[in-house]
């Protein structure tokens, strides 16, 4: 990884790296002293990438859904998920800044809001298509198969190998978690401040909702395949999982499902990346 504080010339390099240089790119390049200190390194360096810390989730069967939950969590059913990897943390502002710089994308709506702009906070107000775009960029830069997780993968990972528990830690109510009353007052918190689940994954179930790859169907569990379900083939809303800093109850049950249209950009929506197993 190379960390760069990129001036205008870096945006030129970013444009060239993507296969095009526009008139504004050329104008910026003409204004820069390419023989100045450090320019040789800058011109030969790749744009910064922060590769996520990935946790391997083993293959296996698990009970998906909840018989005492909402209708869209029923029926409780047995599901097989192949081994895969999931990022230990939600994608942060620091991570996402590399993507913005490399691709010249506009900043998310809450980017400069002090309640949301700590480097280690999860990036928020990201549409589903933007999360997919980040994964595609990470793929190109690393040659690794990054993507969004499926709902089944997310729940498999959140359960941490423990069946039938309401939450990632067990059945203890969220209000009894350490510091619960003091957390999430005006926005999300930096990732990884508290203990992970049994697989070593942080904030699964709290902080922000996380986009999943699937289309959402409230009746999908009644006819979903038993092995590696990927969701319906089409729909109007994309599935998401996890809790939200702005909800009355800040932590979601492991089986709880949520969804919004893919173009929506909410201040309590972020994402984490998955990766097809490479081992």
Task: Draw up the topology in text.
Layout: H1 8-17, H2 23-30, H3 39-44, E1 54-57, E2 60-64, E3 77-81, E4 84-87, H4 93-103, H5 128-142, E5 146-147, H6 151-159, E6 209-215, E7 238-241, E8 258-260, E9 269-270, E10 274-276
Parallel strand pairs: 6-9
Antiparallel strand pairs: 1-4, 2-3, 4-10, 5-10, 6-7, 7-8
Helix pairs in contact: 1-2
Detailed description of the structure:
This protein has helices spanning 8-17, 23-30, 39-44, 93-103, 128-142, 151-159; strands at residues 54-57, 60-64, 77-81, 84-87, 146-147, 209-215, 238-241, 258-260, 269-270, 274-276. The protein has 279 residues and is an alpha+beta fold. It folds into two domains: 8-44, no CATH class; 54-276, paralog of FGE (formylglycine-generating enzyme) (Alpha-Beta Complex). Strands 1-4-10-5 form a four-stranded antiparallel sheet. Mean pLDDT is 86; it is low at 1-46.
Please give the radius of gyration in angstroms: 20 Å
Give the amount of beta strand, in percent. Answer: 5-15%
Structural class: alpha+beta
How would you name the CATH homologous superfamily of the largest domain?
paralog of FGE (formylglycine-generating enzyme)
Helix content: 10-25%
CATH C-level category of the largest domain: Alpha Beta
Mean pLDDT: 86
Overall number of strands: 10
Low-confidence parts lasting 5 or more residues at pLDDT below 50? 1-46
Number of helices: 6
* Coarse morphology: globular
Query: Which strands sit side by side, in order, in the main sheet?
Result: 1-4-10-5
Supply the number of structural domains: 2
Largest pleated sheet: 4 strands, antiparallel
Name of the CATH architecture of the largest domain = Alpha-Beta Complex
